[in-house]
Amino acid sequence: MDIKIETIMMELVVNGGNARSCALQAIAAAREGKFELADKQIKEAEAAIEKAHEFQTDILQAEASGEHLEMSLIMVHAQDHLMNSMTVRDLANEFIKLYKKADVPC
After folding, report:
1. Are 8 and 74 in contact (CB under 8 A)?
2. Does residue 77 have an active-site annotation?
3. Which residue in 53, 68, 77, 81 is the catalytic one?
């Protein structure tokens, strides 16, 4: 593998965390009726998830090609960050739809 596994894990943690933060900020913006900002924040979350997913794909391809990767707490933590960010992003999209439908800030 060209990139050290530790670097990949940190990229997953950082980008997953950034995506989660952006998705939560999107919900807050939608709650205030700031739908353009909410949409911008969701796009930023998507970009961070995409970047993290590219790193995850590197790991999967390495393992699929026969490279043995040690399981570590950091790897589990990194994968957890990515999955959590994807879940929060999905929920944020639903919240934004609901706030747009209500079209009334709460």
Report:
1. no
2. yes
3. 77
